[in-house]
């Protein structure tokens, strides 16, 4: 198993989705300090379940989420995912790839996912413990771990070895077992305590249970005796009731026959009435269907016209596409011809390139031969020149040395002679520098004040800009709201106008009359004298619209006409066209009674409806007729009070729409959301003004927004100016600071020179003597060197002539080769140009082919669409014919239904006569039956009294049995005779089945005495607990259960103790084995990393393995054995690395992140560190965060991290060669990683 991929989003400085791809081996991550390298190690710690914010280098959980930068906003979430390759099923999951994800929100909520499935932290911990990547393992090793492994106490250092021994899982099991053992022991104690409390109560309950059983036996005996007595008493009472019931039965049968006859006649009348109603409703429904069919016919006619237009449009588009397709096919042929010619030219150029390349190769071979000869001769020349130069250099050096000695002698002499004038000059310079320092400091202070003023002004300006931005956003939102309101009102107004034009929501008759009236106004034949409907002629306040509409009811669509004659013409028109019905109010005939309105001074009274609406005075009679007897009140309770003084024929309506009539009837409920004519008319009046008001507000807001934007631009311009001025001021301040530092350095230098000159005088005088001796020795050496250089000069001249000849021949060959290469480049360029031309031609041809295919596809689609429109047109024509036939059929059905209604009226009159005869006979039979029922009821009451006594003694359940319980089939039916009332006239013989027969008569006196004795015994046992037996059995069962549970718990505790003992033995054995292995490996790695020396691990208390600490003893090469505190920083780091590598060798983790572990190592130690790391990489995948060049060179992959201006980490990737070339200085530049 190895880490395949690491994905980061919003974690610390990784603001965007960043993916790191890893392979097995070593991957290095490099970058400058502060670029975010260590955030990768923190991400690995965090996703594996780390909860310590200190280890994650954060104070709060929010610090782990990207906080934003100069040009990037903060994020609300951080997410890190680790993807492992589980192809060998190292982890017990049936997946070849496992992705572990942790997500954190700014609210503090943290989520874990495994292969994108939500899991718990415990699940993640268990999974990582199985893989060796737990929170406290060595998956992430930083500098802090390297330092702490040496600075910890021996007892604390033990934890590292426990992790290496993989004891964590056993420790978790041990803790769980100890916790379970403590709980089990508590449960054992609790079970024993409860059992000891129950034991004394068992004896008492056993005695009570015995008495309860005796009482139950006596109660059963009493019940049986009572049943015997009451059974025989019941038989005598039932036989007496039987005789009385027979008389009632005979009369009841005759009465039932007469009632059945009356019911039959009434049923026939009901059926006739239902049939008439059904026929009337059917006629109305058929007429409604005819209206619907006519409307559908108009719609189909419109669809036919639209379909014809669509067919014509498709045909025109088909013709245009056919012409375009022909033109494109012609262009395709010419393109193919040009492509063929270009391919032939390309083949010719390829042959020319081959010929030119062969010529160049021959010329190159000859040139290499000449160059080899020239280099051979040149090397000899170089040797001679080197000797000559060396002799010349020696000569020049000796002469220069003589010159320097003379100059130095003169300089020292001059220096000694001019020391005093130099001192005076330095004093003057020091005074001048002090004056300049004071001046520069004054200018720097002035620049600081100016920079502070500019910074404050810039801060105020930024606040103003923020305020203007907020105002602009608010104004934009207001404009959006106003625009939305304008659009909504305009849409609603358009809908209302369409409804107004089509008379939507009106009755069919009213709609037909209004349309006929409008047709006449458009200079077509139509109705005259039509004013309008009532709902359009009156206006009500918006708060009273519901009340007025409810008060008017269907009258709101009454049609107001000028004269009675106009109403007659309209009615005739409706009959002629079968357009429905309508109510007309002629102004010359409608009259309203003048009735005084009741007093309306009480609270909640609004007034007379006719006076609360507005209308034209000419319609006053109509309004008084419809609303002159209607009062409007606020609520229903107010209407209840007003009902007391309401005259007959008046009604009250509330604002919510309830109606109270003078008769006391009240109508109310929810008001439907259908067509509201008064509200519609009000909206038609109010909406245009509302739209104009909104448009005016939009204009004002747009002007304000324009002013805000102009002011914002001015402020931004001023801000840019201030930023420029502030930058210039700070630059000047920096320049002054730099100049001030230079002046102070110069002042310090001059002071030091003054101190030095005094001590140098003595040194210079001694130096003059030394120079004289050196001058004499150099003159002797110079004469020897001159003689040797003269001999080698002659040989050098001969060799130089040969080199010159070879050089001239080489230049001639090089010129020829350059000409050949030029010709080859020209031919290759021509070939490349032809290839590009051919490629463009091919792309053009492919584009043309694609366009032709698209045109052909569109042509086929248009043809299919035209065919579909043709079919729709044919279907519409067929629908017209079918609807005509259906209208004829409906008219025939209406005529047939009217004939059926006339025939049923004659049959109804005949049945009414038969009904009167049956009623007369029924009255006599009812009187006789009532008398017989009274007598039977008296006998049945006596039976009921006996039943009540039985229920009191034996209970309701026994009294309701079939032998005793009366089953009532009506107010006068006795239970004993229930079958006789439902069957034939059998004189009640079957009724005796419920009466016990063949039972020997008991001695009732002796039976009553025995019952009294039993009751006396029961009275003595009256105080016994009725639930004693149940409580005794429950307590005994609970006692047995608790003792059994205590035994089971004790066995479980013993098992847990054995498990704890075994776990401790296992942990001890694993610790000892791991310690020995780590100690051996530690010695090996110590010698390897130090190149010698010795080191060992020592247990502080070998007798107590469970608590012993671990001490480290080290002796680097060439040093004595000493404590870790006496080692240098590099030696301490190497010792810690040796121990960590030993642990990883003994217990390798699949993945290990090393965060700048090699930071304290020098170059030679890094080389040994890298060798050891390569050995461990065979079993562990390493991700190394480093600055060391040597560590980078052994890596198989390289990632570079840099910090951008927006405070986000930028990632670059580099895949290194597998072997061989690993010099970091000569590698290609890093390439940006794919995010």
Could you walk me through the main structural features you see in this protein, from its secondary elements to its overall organization?
With 1235 residues, this protein is α+β, with helices and mostly antiparallel strands. Among the domains are: 224 residues, P-loop containing nucleotide triphosphate hydrolases (Rossmann fold, 3-Layer(aba) Sandwich), CATH 3.40.50.300; 169 residues, Alpha-Beta Plaits (2-Layer Sandwich). 68% of the residues lie in helices and 9% in strands. It has 21 helices and 25 strands. The strands form six sheets. Strands 8-21-22-3-23-24-25 form a seven-stranded mixed β-sheet. A six-stranded antiparallel β-sheet has the order 2-1-4-5-6-7. The longest helix has 278 residues. The protein is extended. The two termini are 25 Å apart. The C terminus is likely disordered.
């Amino acid at each position: 198993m190895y880490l395949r991929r690491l994905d980061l989003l919003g974690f610390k400085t990784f603001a965007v989705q960043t993916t790191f791809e890893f392979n097995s081996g070593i991957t290095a991550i490099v970058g400058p300090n502060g670029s975010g390298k260590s955030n990768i190690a923190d991400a690995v710690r965090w996703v594996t379940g780390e909860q310590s914010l200190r280890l994650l280098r954060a104070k709060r959980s929010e610090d782990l989420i990207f906080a934003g930068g100069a040009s990037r906003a903060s994020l609300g979430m951080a997410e890190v995912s680790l993807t492992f390759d589980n192809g060998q099923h190292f982890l017990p999951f049936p997946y070849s790839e496992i992705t572990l994800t942790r997500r954190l929100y700014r609210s503090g909520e943290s989520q874990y996912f495994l292969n994108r499935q939500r899991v718990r932290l415990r699940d993640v911990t268990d999974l990582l413990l199985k893989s060796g990547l737990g929170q406290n393992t060595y998956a992430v090793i930083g500098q802090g771990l390297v330092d702490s492994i040496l600075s910890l106490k021996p007892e604390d250092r033990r934890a590292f070895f426990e992790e290496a021994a993989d004891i964590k899982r056993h420790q978790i099991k041990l803790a769980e077992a100890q916790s379970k053992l403590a709980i089990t022991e508590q449960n054992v104690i609790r079970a024993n305590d409860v059992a000891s409390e129950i034991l004394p109560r068992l004896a008492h309950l056993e005695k009570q249970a015995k008495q309860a059983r005796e009482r139950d036996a006596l109660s059963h005996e009493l019940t049986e005796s009572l049943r015997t007595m009451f059974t025989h008493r019941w038989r005598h009472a039932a036989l007496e009731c039987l005789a009385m019931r027979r008389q009632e039965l005979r009369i009841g049968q005759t009465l039932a026959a007469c009632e059945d006859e009356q019911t039959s006649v009434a049923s026939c009348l009901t059926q006739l009435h239902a049939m008439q109603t059904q026929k009337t409703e059917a006629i109305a429904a058929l007429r409604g269907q005819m209206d619907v069919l006519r409307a559908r016919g108009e719609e189909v006619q419109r669809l036919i016209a639209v379909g014809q237009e669509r067919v014509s449009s498709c045909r025109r588009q088909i013709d245009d596409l056919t012409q375009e397709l022909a033109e494109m096919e012609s262009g395709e042929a010419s393109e193919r011809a040009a492509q063929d010619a270009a391919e032939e030219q390309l083949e010719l150029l390829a042959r020319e390139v081959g010929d030119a390349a062969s010529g160049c190769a021959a010329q190159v071979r000859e040139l290499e031969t000449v160059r080899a000869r020239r280099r051979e001769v040149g090397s000899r020349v170089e040797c001679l020149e080197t000797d000559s130069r060396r002799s010349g250099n020696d000569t020049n050096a000796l002469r220069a040395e003589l010159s320097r000695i003379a100059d130095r002698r003169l300089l020292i002499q001059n220096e000694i002679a001019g020391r005093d004038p130099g001192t005076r000059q330095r004093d003057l310079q020091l005074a001048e520098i002090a004056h300049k320092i004071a001046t520069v400091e004054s200018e720097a202070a002035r620049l600081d004040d100016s920079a502070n003023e500019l910074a404050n002004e810039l801060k105020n300006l930024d606040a103003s800009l923020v305020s203007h931005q907020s105002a602009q956003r608010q104004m934009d939102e207001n404009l959006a709201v106003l625009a939305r309101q304008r659009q909504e009102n305009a849409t609603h107004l358009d809908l209302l106008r369409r409804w107004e034009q089509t008379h939507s929501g009106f009755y069919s008759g009213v709609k037909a009359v209004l349309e006929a009236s409008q047709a006449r106004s458009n200079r077509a034949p139509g109705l005259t004298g039509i004013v309008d409907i009532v709902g359009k002629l009156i206006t009500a306040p918006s708060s009273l619209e519901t009340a007025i509409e409810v008060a008017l009811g269907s009258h709101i669509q009454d049609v107001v006409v000028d004269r009675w004659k106009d109403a007659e013409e309209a009615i005739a028109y409706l009959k002629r066209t079968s357009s429905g019905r309508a109510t007309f109010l002629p102004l010359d005939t409608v009259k309203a009674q003048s009735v005084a309105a009741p007093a309306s001074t009480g609270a909640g009274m609004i007034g007379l409806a006719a006076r609360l609406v507005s209308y034209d005075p000419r319609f006053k009679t109509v309004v008084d007729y419809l609303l002159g007897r209607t009062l409007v009140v606020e609520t229903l309770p107010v209407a209840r009070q007003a009902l007391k003084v309401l005259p007959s024929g008046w009604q009250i309506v509330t604002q919510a729409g309830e109606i109270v009539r003078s008769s006391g009837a009240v109508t109310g409920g929810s008001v439907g959301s259908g067509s509201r004519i008064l509200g519609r008319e009000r909206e038609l009046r109010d909406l245009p003004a509302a739209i104009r008001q909104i448009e005016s507000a939009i204009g004002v807001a747009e002007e304000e927004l324009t002013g805000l934007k102009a002011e914002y631009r001015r402020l931004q311009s001023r801000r840019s100016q201030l930023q420029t001025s502030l930058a210039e001021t700070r630059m000047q301040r920096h320049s002054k600071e730099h100049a001030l530092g230079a002046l102070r350095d110069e002042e310090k230098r001059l002071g030091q020179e003054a101190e030095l000159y005094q001590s140098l005088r003595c040194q210079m005088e001694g130096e003059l003597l030394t120079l004289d001796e050196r001058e004499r020795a150099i003159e002797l050496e110079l004469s020897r060197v001159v003689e040797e250089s003269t001999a080698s000069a002659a040989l050098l001249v001969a060799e130089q002539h040969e080199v010159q000849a070879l050089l001239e021949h080489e230049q001639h060959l090089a010129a020829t080769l350059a000409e050949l290469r030029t010709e080859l480049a020209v031919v290759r360029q021509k070939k490349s140009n032809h290839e590009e031309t051919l490629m463009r031609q091919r792309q053009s041809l492919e584009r043309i082919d694609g366009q032709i295919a698209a045109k052909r596809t569109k042509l086929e689609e248009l043809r299919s669409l035209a065919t579909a429109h043709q079919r729709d047109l044919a279907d519409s024509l067929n629908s017209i014919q079918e609807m005509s036939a259906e209208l004829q059929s409906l008219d025939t059905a209406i005529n047939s239904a009217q004939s059926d209604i006339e025939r049923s009226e004659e049959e109804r009159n005949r049945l009414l006569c038969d009904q009167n005869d049956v009623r007369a006979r029924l009255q006599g039979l009812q009187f006789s039956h009532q008398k017989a029922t009274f007598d039977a009821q008296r006998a049945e009451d006596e039976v009921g009294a006996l039943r009540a006594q039985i229920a009191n003694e034996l209970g309701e359940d026994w009294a309701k049995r079939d032998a005793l319980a009366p089953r009532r089939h009506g107010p006068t039916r006795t239970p004993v005779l229930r079958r006789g009332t439902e069957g034939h006239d059998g004189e009640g013989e079957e009724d005796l089945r419920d009466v016990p027969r063949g039972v020997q008569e008991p001695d009732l006196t002796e039976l009553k005495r025995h019952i009294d004795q039993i009751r006396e015994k029961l009275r003595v046992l009256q105080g016994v607990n009725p639930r004693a037996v149940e409580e005794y059995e429950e307590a005994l069962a609970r006692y047995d259960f608790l003792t059994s549970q205590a035994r089971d718990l004790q066995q479980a505790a013993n098992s847990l103790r054995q498990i704890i003992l075994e776990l401790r033995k296992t942990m001890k054995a694993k610790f000892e084995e791991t310690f020995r292995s780590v100690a051996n490996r530690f010695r090996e790695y110590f010698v390897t990393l130090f190149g010698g020396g010795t080191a060992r691990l020592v247990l502080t208390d070998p007798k107590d393995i469970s608590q012993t600490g671990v001490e480290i003893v080290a002796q680097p090469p060439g040093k004595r054995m000493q404590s870790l505190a006496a080692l240098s920083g590099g030696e301490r780091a190497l010792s810690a690395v040796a121990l960590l590598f030993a642990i990883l060798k003994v217990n390798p983790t699949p993945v290990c992140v090393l965060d700048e572990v090699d930071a304290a190592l020098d170059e030679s130690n890094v080389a040994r560190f890298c060798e050891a790391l390569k050995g461990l990489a065979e079993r562990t995948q390493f991700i190394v965060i480093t600055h060391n060049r040597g560590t980078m060179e052994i890596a198989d992959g390289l990632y570079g991290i840099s910090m951008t201006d927006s405070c986000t980490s930028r990632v670059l990737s580099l895949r290194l060669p597998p072997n061989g070339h690993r010099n970091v200085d000569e590698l290609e530049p890093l390439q940006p990683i794919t995010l």
